[in-house]
């Protein structure tokens, strides 16, 4: 399969699988892309009292009962801001609407706001119809407590920490799904998305990002894999997913996050990355992987430390 983009031209995927194996000796992923308007950057998202703590949540997949249980736990701990790292549950039809309506009502009742990085299993037709607010977030008029991050969005939170979002991941089971029903090609994380993130960070003259929120895990961070290889996980799909993780890693090497939180792999873990920036400068990044609905490690409370990223992390137990 020939592939062309700015990472390396037509020959990139000739060796993509070998490079992927070198960076991450394992397999799996889920991805995204955006045809959305250019976001504003570096704008404080609200004027709430600074608590120094935020909620972080992994994949919910439209699971109403599980998501409601996490919202109740966050509220009980005094959390007012939740960041979700994708596969939230932005789905079409009555099921998707019920999920949004139920969670939004719970957020209003508990004075919570949610900021969401879109995953691969999301309705991108609906995302494309969203409007940008004054801070550069994508919004649904009926659900003002939810805001969705365009690809490459950057902002400064209420605590003064510098955040960046780069959603997207490749669905490994793409061949089993139906386009426009439960799979959308806009899931793909493109080089354009990565370039926009880098441009936004540089326009702010940030030396580093404090916290980077992604759906997928950048290549090289950990040995993810499957014990068996289903027939639908073809070499073409493997390359499709691998190249997106490589793009994400390259973007990470440009913006130098102190912390990175992601979902997608349905696994709760801590990792770290010691690497070289695009300019050859050493940097260190702490990584937090969040599990999926119904699993331990799907939601945590984290201290926010401007200039350092995240501090103490506490798991929300069922």
Explained architecture:
- The structure is a single chain.
- The protein is 25% helix and 21% strand.
- By secondary structure, the protein is of the alpha/beta class.
- The strands form 2 sheets. Strands 4-5-6-3-2-1-13-14 form an 8-stranded mixed beta sheet, with helices on one face. The chain has a 6-stranded mixed beta sheet with strand order 7-8-9-10-12-11, covered by helices on one side.
- The chain has one domain: Metallo-dependent phosphatases (Purple Acid Phosphatase, chain A, domain 2), CATH 3.60.21.
- The relative contact order is 0.20.
- Helix 2 (64-76) packs parallel to helix 3 and helix 5 (191-203) packs parallel to helix 6 (235-255).
- It has helices at 16-23, 64-76, 93-110, 124-128, 191-203, 235-255; strands at residues 53-57, 81-84, 113-117, 131-132, 138-139, 146-149, 154-156, 162-166, 211-214, 259-262, 269-276, 282-289, 299-305, 309-315.
């Amino acid at each position: 399969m020939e592939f062309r983009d700015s990472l390396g031209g037509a020959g990139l995927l000739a060796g993509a699988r070998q490079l992927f194996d070198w960076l991450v000796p394992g397999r799996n992923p889920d991805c995204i892309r955006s045809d959305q308007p250019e976001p504003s950057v570096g704008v404080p998202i609200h004027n709430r009292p600074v608590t120094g703590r935020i909620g972080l949540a992994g994949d919910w997949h439209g699971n109403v009962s599980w998501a409601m249980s996490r919202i109740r736990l966050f509220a009980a701990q005094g959390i007012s801001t939740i960041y979700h790292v994708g596969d939230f549950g932005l789905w079409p039809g009555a099921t998707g609407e019920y999920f949004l309506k139920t969670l939004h009502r719970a957020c209003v009742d508990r004075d919570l706001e949610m900021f969401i990085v879109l995953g691969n299993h999301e309705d991108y037709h609906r995302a494309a119809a969203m409007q940008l607010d004054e801070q550069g977030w994508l919004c649904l008029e009926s659900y003002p407590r939810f805001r969705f991050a365009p690809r490459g969005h950057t902002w400064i939170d209420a605590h003064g920490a510098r955040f960046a979002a780069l959603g997207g991941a490749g669905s490994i089971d793409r061949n089993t799904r139906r386009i426009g029903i439960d799979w959308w090609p806009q899931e793909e994380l493109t080089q354009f998305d990565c370039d926009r993130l880098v441009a936004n960070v540089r326009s702010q003259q940030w030396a580093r990002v404090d916290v980077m929120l992604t759906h997928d895990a950048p290549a090289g961070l950990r040995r993810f894999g499957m014990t068996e290889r289903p027939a639908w996980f073809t070499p073409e799909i493997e390359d499709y997913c691998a190249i997106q993780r490589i793009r994400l890693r390259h973007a990470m090497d440009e913006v130098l996050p102190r912390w990175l939180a992601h979902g997608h792999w349905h696994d709760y873990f801590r990792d770290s990355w010691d690497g070289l920036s695009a300019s050859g400068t050493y940097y260190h990044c702490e990584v937090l992987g969040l599990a999926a609905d119904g699993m331990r490690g799907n939601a945590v409370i984290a201290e926010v430390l401007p200039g350092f990223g995240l501090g103490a992390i506490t798991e929300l137990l069922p």
